[in-house]
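Example S7 (structure tokens).
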């Protein structure tokens, strides 16, 4: 006779084992010890809080910090990364200039949080404010016929700058450009303001009360113009035994503007006294012109004179050029 009990025994054992596994799974869920999976990471925007009044943060720091959640998978799945907030409390005492990175959550998740950076270096300086003059610099070619450019002003004439004391201290001037080429239609322009150091390099991370000014150019009818040769006026004497044999101006002549009645009486333009006292060799000397009142150079430029000197015992030579 066929024994049914022998056939059912393996099935009974398998059923018992499955029941044990199911009971263990239910118990693990009830006690919250779900087997751990891979940790979940969240990139969280970093905030700076409780900054001391009258101070400013200098330099760069990470805008985001990565926090890794280590714990049960079910807990990780509950986390809404958009509700996480990372911050540094600047009122705390730093450790070697490095501040503790903290995390703020809306729920008490049963996980361990591990930041990518436990501490970050933050530099804080005193904030200072001062005013600097705006200097207008002309660029481009002035194309208006029968007129001349007589300078420009900016409105406002000064700007207030604020920032870290070390950065504000670098600012030597504020510059605004005036494009002379575009003055044909309008003598006012909007111009951006740049903050520059003593080497004319831009200074950044300093705020301004305004970064745009109105530049107004002064344009006047051009007065009569005349081209004149330059006449030297000497001061002193060369070293004993030497002689000045020739001289040469660069440029050889200059254009001047002024009232017609003044220009009509000018045939040359004299220099201010040129000091040649003790000169003993050929030399190039910068000079100034002795311009009559009301007369000005049409185009300001550097003027030099090359003085040719020879020893009295040498054959006399002259030169028509440098």
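Recovered sequence:
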């Amino acid at each position: 006779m066929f024994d049914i009990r022998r056939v059912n025994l393996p099935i009974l054992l398998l059923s018992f084992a499955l029941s044990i596994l199911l009971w263990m799974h239910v118990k693990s869920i009830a006690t919250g010890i779900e087997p751990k999976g891979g940790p979940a990471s969240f990139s969280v925007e970093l905030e700076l809080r409780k900054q001391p009044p009258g101070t400013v943060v200098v330099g760069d720091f990470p805008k985001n910090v990565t926090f890794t959640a280590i714990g049960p998978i079910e807990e990780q799945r509950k986390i809404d990364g958009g509700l996480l907030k990372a911050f540094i409390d600047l009122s705390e005492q730093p450790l070697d200039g490095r501040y503790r990175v903290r995390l703020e959550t809306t729920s008490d998740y049963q996980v361990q949080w591990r930041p990518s950076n436990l501490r970050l270096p933050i530099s804080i300086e005193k904030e200072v404010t001062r005013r600097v003059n705006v200097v207008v610099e002309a660029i481009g070619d002035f194309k208006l016929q029968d007129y001349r450019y007589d300078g420009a002003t900016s409105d406002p004439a000064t700007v207030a700058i604020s920032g870290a004391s070390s950065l504000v201290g670098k600012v030597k001037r504020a510059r605004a450009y005036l494009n002379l080429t575009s003055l044909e239609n309008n003598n006012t322009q909007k111009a951006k303001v740049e903050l520059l150091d003593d080497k004319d390099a831009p200074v950044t991370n300093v705020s301004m009360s305004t970064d745009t000014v109105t530049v107004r150019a002064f344009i006047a009818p051009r007065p009569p113009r005349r081209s004149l040769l330059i006449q030297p006026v000497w001061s002193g004497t060369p070293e004993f035994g030497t002689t000045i044999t020739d001289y040469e101006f660069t440029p050889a002549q200059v254009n001047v503007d002024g009232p017609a009645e003044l220009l009509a009486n000018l045939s040359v333009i004299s220099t201010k006294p040129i000091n040649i006292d003790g000169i003993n060799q050929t030399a190039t000397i910068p000079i100034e012109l002795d311009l009559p009142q009301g007369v000005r150079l049409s185009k300001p430029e550097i003027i030099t004179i090359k003085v040719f000197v020879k020893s009295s015992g040498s054959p006399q030579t002259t030169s028509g050029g440098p």
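Notes on this example. Helices lie at 4-31, 73-78, 165-168, 260-263.
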